[in-house]
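Hi team,

Filling in the usual template for the complex we talked about on Friday. All components are listed, including any nucleic acid strands or ligand strings, so the model treats them as one assembly.

SUBMITTER: L.P.
PURPOSE: interface mapping
COMPONENTS: three
RESIDUES: 876
SEQUENCES:
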Amino acid sequence: MTARKSTVLITAIVLAASLAGASLTVRRLDHLRAGATAEEALYVPSPKILRRMTLGYNGLLADIYWTRAVQYFGVHHYVRSRRYKLLEPLLDITTTLDPHLVVAYEFGAVFLAQKPPEGAGDPDAAVRLVERGVRENPSEWRLYYNLGFIHYFERHDYSAAADAFERGSRVPGALSWMKVMAAQMSQHAGNLQTARFLWSSLYETTDNDDIRVNAAKHLRALQVDEEVSVLEKLVTGFHERTGRWPANWAEMVAGGYLRGVPLDPTRRPYQLTPGGRVLVQVPEDLPFITKGLVEEPSQQQPSESK
Amino acid sequence: MNRISAVAFNTFREAVRDHVLYNLIFFALLLVGAALLFGQISIGIQRIVLVNLGLTAISVFGVVIAIFIGIGLVSKEMEKKTLYTILSRPVRRWEFIVGKFGGLAWTLVVNTLCMAIGFFAALLLLARHFERADSWLVVAIYFIILEFVVVTALALLFSTFSSPVLSAVMALALFVIGTFAEDLRAFAAMSHGATRVFATLAAYVVPNFASLNVISSVAHGQPIAASLILYNTVYSMFYAAAALCGAILVFEYRNLK
Amino acid sequence: MPAIETFALEKSYSIGFWRKRRVAGLKPLNLSVEAGEVFGYLGPNGAGKTTTLKLLMGLIFPSGGSARILGMEIADPRMKSLIGFLPEQPYFYDYLTAAELLEYYAQLSGVPGRERTRRVEQMLARVGMSQSARTQLRKLSKGMLQRVGIAQAILHDPKVVFLDEPMSGLDPLGRREVRDLIQTLKDEGKTVFFSTHILSDAEALCDRVAILHRGELRGVGAVDELTARTQSRIEILFHGLEGITLLSALGAECHATGETVQAIIAESRQDEALDALRRQGARLISLTPVRATLEDYFIERLGEKTGKVEVAR
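RESULT (copied from the run log):
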């Protein structure tokens, strides 16, 4: 083999080995840095300074921070973390760099407001974020919708929710149901149909996968709540007719109240308690349900509508 | 080995005679200017600002030198035909490439050491004494040198087949992209189909500068994990080796003008 | 064993935007140069002389064929320590001084450390550069750079020396010096291969020459044998300017000084010319054969169609 051929061969082998080595090492490095400190992830804590530093290339940097926010949430959500410390700062920086990145406001509306482990549990921060979005994007009626969302579901402040929907309905181009929603807030606060409507419209109109998945979970939870209510009514009916509580679902089927054993959306049968309550077998798999739990969550009294 | 070190020494000599080391004067001026401004800032964050400014300057100056000399390492010799009397001698083409790399890397190390001395002098002037946390500054500077090694190897690779202007553009672009390499990998993880394949490929081929930049960490006096030092070193060696091999392969087949 | 051998060595280039057209830089070349010879590689500009040298030095790669120097393949790095090369122009690092350049090159050529400084000083003295040894090359004149070039070509005591147009751009004194150097190298037993388009230099120095035209070898051989094959010519001196037209018609070159005319004409037409002059009544002064020069051979070879290669041993 000529000198040149052997040089080329050795060099090619070393090249392939080095690339492989580099790629493997990068994976280790990413792993190491996944636990990066707040300083590093944000690089510059103050959004205003960052904006000035970026030499005008705000849009690109906003996209990068948006990606980091989504990534950050995804990682924490996966490990069922209870703290999402950096989510607000990341979204804050993203929207400071690019105030017109509407999806970031929507993301914050959903995931900043919801309770852990599904979100950061800070509805006030969510409201602050979306209010800024509304200020910077007055023609985006959807942001009012997001705002109403937070007031309705997480802060249970139905008058604020009604107000948000009302403001949004006045924006040119807003869909007509915004006005309807404003009215609903006032009159039928706490209504299952309202909740269902809000979540399905979010499910249908959002571009973001995470939000869509979340909306689906909510819709499923609403379905469970409804099913549990209906089942408990039927069981109560059985009790009134027979004077005793049914021992199992088979009796309900025999009595003509049901066609078969009722299954929840995870395909597990609902459980019947001796006292006539219907429970969900594995509540951890059905986030957001308010019925069918061993301990009913404390019901917040809806505020009086104006 | 003798031939490689001869080429390396000559490359170093060329950089020096090209007045590259005069950039140290600008660096010194920068530090002096910063010191004058310090009177305006509260004492608590003076150290933070000095470290951020000093290390960023060392990094930026060095990367600029690495790129602007690196892109000419081979292309200039081909343009000026100085290779005629070099390659007609027993020096192998791959030895030439390795020597060129070594010379520029060595120039950057010397440059960085001079800057480091100035930087630590400024730090001493400010804080009156060194703390334990200052030892991490040395690690940060070591990482910056690793950055230079990677950039130099890449610039050299481009130099073997591309004109200076195009090489400069590519090298700068790769440097910027490499700074966001982790985000690129995140982008890739979020995409689907063919885009995902290409994005993932790109995300691993691009140099990973994100993990080499610990400036803001050491500015706050935070320690650096030994494992990070190890993996960064290993990564930079692998990556630079890959780029050098690429350069050698290209150069092995190039017909001189 | 020949010092330099080529076996159908060729180089062609793909040109044009789509790299479709092929242009021949050097057509398949078979050449052989013996050890100790001074070999002239002749041809007009663009003939392919520098291309051949670049192929032999390993600066460019052949499209076909191969070559050997001192029995080793041209890609063999060991061979490189036994050869020296002077390129057409002084392509050197202009930020170095002559001494630094030679020191660096000596290191690359494998001259051991202790030897180096001594050898460098020796070379500088030999080419008359001792005075300017510490001046940066960018400040030196062309003639001085050429001397540095020669120094770097021979400083490691090579067995074969390759010179690309060594006399170009030099004044007569410089050219004389280079000629003397080539002679000295020959006396030292080295093989010298040099390209040039100045034929008088080749004539004086070379044992053998080769002529290249448009990438193709047209003739190879010892100078006197080649010129012997050229058509001989005669010089006719006569009185009578009227004869000029007649003889020019026969293809003669005529120069008139006063009444006397010098006409140089092919020997084969000698009788016709003499007849014409007698009929004119011109007075014949002398008739002398003219020695064919290499230039004549050169022009003759260049004028021919391709394909025929004259080889004279």
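MY TAKE: Residues 220-285 of chain A form one domain. Chain A is about 60% helix and 0% strand.

Thanks, L.
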